[in-house]
Write a structure and sequence with these properties.
Blueprint: E1 3-4, E2 8-11, H1 18-29, E3 33-35, H2 36-44, H3 48-55, H4 57-72, E4 78-80, H5 89-98, E5 100-105, H6 108-115, H7 129-144, E6 149-152, H8 159-171, E7 177-178
Parallel strand pairs: 2-4, 2-5, 3-4, 5-6
Antiparallel strand pairs: 1-7
Helix pairs in contact: 1-8, 2-4, 3-4, 4-5
Amino acid sequence: MVSLVKTVVLVGMMGAGKTAVGTALARQLGVAFKDSDEEIVRAASRSIAEIFERDGEPFFRSRETEVISRLLRSTPCVLSTGGGAFLSESNRQLIHDVGVSVWLKADLELLWQRVRHKTTRPLLRTSNPRETLRTLYEARQPLYAMADIVVESAAERSVDDMAARVVEALKARPDVLEV
């Protein structure tokens, strides 16, 4: 049996599998699964879209940092973050100092296959959502690459297989998992 010593923070693009893999990972490790966006929505009693509309993105990003900080300092868990959370230098540093970041790296085509029919992605509500996704992907890759651990995704890998791959990567970090 392994024991989680610090929070595992999943980062990456929309469609990378942060929620699905995170849920499976938490189950495999026997810890809680948390989603920073869900925590913000619950605290604000409003959707993220409503927060953006009423209070603006800077307000949202500030709340996001507060939530991530609080969750990192509580009982170790698996934490899924919104696609934009890791873009903030202060969030990256906080996660690196207190937890461990895992980039679920998926190629553009796989991401597109996963998100193209979803209506819950406000950033893709554009005249050319595929091009919007490509632009976001290219801009964010260098920042996601700063994650402590990278786990490659592939269409043929199941959610449980991806979670198992994350566990294997974490085992190389004695500061994260005690075996």
